[in-house]
Amino acid sequence: MQKETMAEINEYLHNRQLQLGMDFGLTRMETLLTCLDNPHHHMKFVHIAGSNGKGSTLNYLKEILQAEGIRTGAFTSPYLESVNEQLSINQSMISDREFISLFNQVHNAVEAMDRSGNGPTQFEILTAMAFLYFKQKEADIVLLETGLGGRLDSTNVVTPVLSIITSISLEHTGILGQSMEEIAREKAGIIKKEVPVISGAAEQAIQDKAVAENARLYQLNKDFFIENLGSEGSMQRFSYHFERYTLDEIELGMLGKHQAENASLALTAILLMNERQQYSIREESIRKGLRHAVWSARFELVSKQPLIVLDGAHNPAGMSALIETLQNYYPDKGFRFVFAALKDKNYQEMIAALDQKAENIIFTEFPHERAAAAELLYECSKTENIRVMKDWQEAIDHSLGNEMDNEVLIITGSLYFLSLARPYLIEKLHGKY
């Protein structure tokens, strides 16, 4: 049955997620794409996997390519406020009208697969829609972010011009593996025969896969480097070095050493595209793109008075990066946190990191089938000034009502939580609570 509104589609996708969950493998995806006449064939992709930094790295790339006038498609996940965010061309996300039309084109094939007992998951449907959209919009290049893992992720049906693996940390251990090497092996599954791969991670599994596929590997801190990292106000600066190429005094609009590292992955990708794909992307576009790139809920300063930071630190590595960045930029401030997490993440280690630096933590929860109960999070903490507020809106309201000049309020944890908290908080700030 055809869908006529975004509300109907959102309900359908939500119910499908509840029914089918995350079921990994490429067979269903290949069947669905065959039904749609393989829209992903004959397109240029940069494929991006990793535990943290995928979205930021993709966004740096997108801003640089746009500054050069290259028509750039981007498929990202999860979204913060609207599912439309996941499919974009340049700065414009897909319209409701286009989304409904695309969904109905794909849905006919989905229904046929459902009747055969092999229906695609929610994420597979979105991935197929993305391929169809970028073909129809005649994107010059598509930046494609994996949903989870890499080897069996629904995006792993493409042969890209470049692969990027951002970082590796312990996450989704029930699905991807119990060790860093096992997780790296899953992420490295995006590496294709003789396709160059850029990596911010140093795990042996990535190196082994690159050798097996005869894919040239370019590794952070081995083949390319960031140097002279410093900050001034809301900008940070660094120098970049790769082979005979050096770029000094790069300005970055996103804060934290991890963001400079993500930017260096994107910069290396641009240089390889110039060298191997006959692009001629100029230094001016590189500088402009990196300076202008922003990514919502990644150390996002949403208010200066009071100081409020939003950050989707959804695993231990992300939390470590958040705390390091807070200490670097607000060394004389106290830190108050509102925290919610998914139950299949390593929230115990994240909370242990919070305990080291937090003056106060409110543990909350949000409506999602994978959300951890606030009491469960509370029981993991050893900080004295902690409390449970199951209603996440109440937790934010309470935090805003107890602001202090010498503190930073940080709302953090799952990106699914941030997708609810961000619009609510911004509306509150505009109305001054």
Topology:
Elements: H1 6-20, H2 27-35, E1 45-49, H3 54-67, E2 72-75, E3 87-89, E4 92-93, H4 96-115, H5 122-136, E5 141-145, E6 162-165, H6 173-176, H7 180-187, E7 197-199, H8 204-212, E8 217-219, E9 224-232, E10 235-242, E11 245-252, H9 257-276, H10 283-292, E12 300-304, E13 307-311, H11 316-329, E14 334-340, H12 347-357, E15 358-365, H13 374-380, E16 386-391, H14 392-400, E17 407-413, H15 415-430
Parallel strand pairs: 1-5, 1-6, 2-5, 6-7, 7-8, 13-17, 14-15, 14-17, 15-16
Antiparallel strand pairs: 2-3, 3-4, 9-10, 10-11, 12-13
Helix pairs in contact: 2-4, 3-9, 3-10, 4-5, 7-8, 11-12
What can you see in these coordinates?
The chain is α/β, with parallel strands linked by helices and 433 residues long. It folds into two domains: 6-292, Mur-like, catalytic domain (UDP-N-acetylmuramoyl-L-alanine:D-glutamate ligase), CATH 3.40.1190.10; 300-430, Protein-Tyrosine Phosphatase, Chain A (Alpha-Beta Complex), CATH 3.90.190. The protein is 42% helix and 21% strand. The protein contains 15 helices and 17 strands. The strands form three sheets. The chain has an eight-stranded mixed β-sheet, sandwiched between helices. A six-stranded mixed β-sheet has the order 12-13-17-14-15-16, sandwiched between helices. Helix 3 (54-67) crosses helix 9, helix 7 packs parallel to helix 8 and helix 11 (316-329) packs parallel to helix 12. The longest helix is centred in the first third of the chain and has 20 residues, at 96-115. 47% of the residues are buried. The model has no long low-confidence stretch (mean pLDDT 93).
